[in-house]
Amino acid sequence: MQITRTFVVEAELPAIRDYLADFTHATEWDPGTERCERRDAGEVRVGSTWDNTSKLAGISTELVYELAELTPTTVVLRGENDTATAEDHLTFAEAGPGRTQVTYQATITFNGVAKLADPAAKLLFTKVAGEVVENITNVARTL
Fold it and tell me: Nearest 5 degrees, angle CA 18-CA 21-CA 24?
């Protein structure tokens, strides 16, 4: 299952990229994230990891996320547990003074019996994607 949204935020590209690369902030922009704690210390870098607890439609799940890619215009975060693999692929482009175009692509792959949830989950994640756009847009104004 894959959902993509492209939108423009009122923030400089490096600021929004760095903010989203630190997955600790997921509690501020991902409506399902209840807790997200960094496992390592120091500068956020490829290989940094987070313990993430999310709850959607009353179902709680825990994933370990890793910053898989970080470039001047890309952030890729990959989360895994026994039932699913999630990947948030974000790309950034200048969109005028103080503005950045963000393309957010979420891919979720269910494993084993969890694959049966895929059709219902698609509807839920489509709704959540709209909330993600709204939340990132709002938080970007504060950066």
Answer: 110
